[in-house]
Design a protein that fits this description.
- The chain is an all-alpha fold.
- 80% of the residues lie in helices and 0% in strands.
- The chain contains four helices and no strands.
- It has helices at 2-10, 13-29, 33-41, 49-70.
Length: 71
């Protein structure tokens, strides 16, 4: 998310595309399909950072819950 925020602050489409692609792959590898889809669909849209932040927060909360149950 820091890379996406940096891309927005620097208005860098290239940086945004790289960060979104990385996020898409990471999210897909842990089964966070909505987050992966958001990252894939917004590769050229700097305006979608809020939606990605919101979904990332949801995924983080679910992962913490899952980890706590496993412990």
């Amino acid at each position: 998310i820091e890379q996406l925020e940096s891309a927005v602050s620097h208005n860098s489409i290239e940086q945004w595309q790289h960060a979104a692609h990385t996020l898409k792959g990471g999210a897909a590898s842990i089964g966070a399909e909505v987050l992966a889809e958001l990252a894939a669909s917004t590769k050229n849209n700097l305006e979608c950072l809020k939606a990605i932040r919101d979904e990332l927060s949801r995924v983080e909360a679910l992962l913490k819950c899952h980890i706590n149950k496993a412990a």
